[in-house]
Amino acid sequence: MLGALTGLLVCQVAGEAFVRLVGLPVPGPVVGMLLLFGWLVFRGEVPEPVARVSAGLLEHLSLLFVPAGVGVVLYLDLVAAEWPAIAAALVLSTLASMLVTAFVMRAFSRKDPQA
Predict the structure, then answer these.
(1) How many CB atoms lie within 10 A of CB 104?
(2) Mean pLDDT over residues 1-27, rounded?
(3) Which of 64, 41, 48, 61 has the alpha carbon at shortest distance from 1?
(4) Is 54 exposed, middle or buried (0-12, 13-18, 19+ CB in 10 A)?
(5) What is the pLDDT of residue 112?
């Protein structure tokens, strides 16, 4: 189990290092998740220790949002000053996600002969 957790953290650190070396405007953990996804696709399965560690992290996911919540409270004056932009970004990104999901669902449902 410790090896699986180490593997997840190595993917995150590798993603962070790649982003800093290349200068991408993407969070390092996102690149790390892509690296992990690529490794899992290449492997063809999710190893049992990785599945157990991932399930354990997902069980306690709400605790991982505490630092983000503290950050929001810390910069509440900045959030109050920029609320129209934040609200617009939330609404537009939600609409974009819903549209993309609808188009993907429509595209895949056409290819299914039983749909």
Answers:
(1) 10
(2) 94
(3) 48
(4) middle
(5) 57
Q: Tell me the DSSP string of the chain.
A: -HHHHHHHHHHHHHHHHHHHHHT-SS-HHHHHHHHHHHHHHHHTS--HHHHHHHHHHHHTHHHHTHHHHHHHHHTHHHHHHTHHHHHHHHHHHHHHHHHHHHHHHHHHHHH-TT-
Mean pLDDT of 30-46: 94
The token pair at 107 is: 């595209």
From the CB of residue 36, how many other CB atoms can be counted at a distance below 10 Å? 20
Taking each helix axis from N to C end, the angle separating 2-22 and 28-43, rounded to the nearest 10 degrees, works out to: 120
Let me know: does 28 contact 15? Beta carbons within 8 Å. yes
pLDDT of residue 69: 87
Give the CA radius of gyration of the chain: 19
Q: How far apart are CA 8 and CA 50, in angstroms?
A: 8
26, two tokens: 């993407």
